[in-house]
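wait is this the right file?? whatever heres the structure
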């Protein structure tokens, strides 16, 4: 067992997100150390904020949409960017995608994705390079959940998704109304009420919306 896998296992518990109960993940809960840890305390140990340890509302909505509409990804190559826990990538694999790659630059997220894929008995490739400024390559579907929480990330991510759309490929974004969600260039595909924790959000439920991103 690596130090990364030990960290993930020691600081999480296995659970299922409320909107996608068929998927199991290693998650931070009220009884696990990560739930109580602050960003400052993690930084002292060189550990980035554990976004991978939570099933965010936008990602849950996107995973639910893919599971309910498997034709979206079935028989296709799928790239899930800023994958976090790998929840959306796992949904794509379960929905019949030919190949799924989960991309996240955080090494702890990469380890969590590997453990979560095994937990759900699916095969997922993992990419730790920053792909946001790269060309769209040959992916048929590119997904991103809950990535509009800060401006630099949102701008770079939307740029990638729009380049994908410009190639005639499908670019999907799941978002619960984060601050930097663009107002134009999106087509709403589905909307879900997602139960969330008041420790993470400003209310007990968020509206998770799945959008198709259009080319500029």
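ok assuming it is, sequence goes like this
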């Amino acid at each position: 067992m690596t130090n990364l896998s030990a960290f993930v296992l020691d600081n999480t518990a296995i659970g299922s997100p409320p909107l996608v109960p068929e998927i199991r993940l290693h998650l931070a809960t009220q009884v696990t150390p990560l739930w109580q840890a602050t960003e400052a305390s993690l930084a002292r140990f060189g550990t980035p904020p554990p976004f991978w340890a939570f099933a965010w509302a936008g990602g849950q909505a996107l995973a639910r949409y893919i599971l309910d509409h498997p034709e979206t990804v079935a028989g296709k190559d799928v790239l899930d960017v800023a994958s976090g826990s790998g929840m959306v990538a796992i949904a794509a694999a379960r929905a019949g995608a030919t190949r799924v790659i989960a991309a996240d630059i955080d090494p702890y997220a990469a380890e969590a994705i590997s453990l979560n894929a095994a937990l759900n008995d699916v095969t997922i490739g993992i990419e730790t390079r920053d792909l946001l400024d790269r060309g769209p390559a040959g992916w048929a579907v590119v997904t991103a959940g809950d990535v509009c929480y800060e401006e630099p990330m949102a701008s770079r991510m939307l740029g990638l998704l729009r380049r994908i759309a410009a190639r005639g490929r499908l670019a999907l974004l799941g978002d619960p109304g984060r601050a930097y969600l663009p107002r134009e260039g999106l087509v709403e595909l589905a909307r879900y009420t997602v139960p969330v924790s008041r420790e993470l959000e400003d209310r007990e439920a968020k509206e998770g919306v799945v959008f198709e991103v259009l080319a500029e």
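DSSP finds seven helices and nine strands in the chain. so i think its the right one actually
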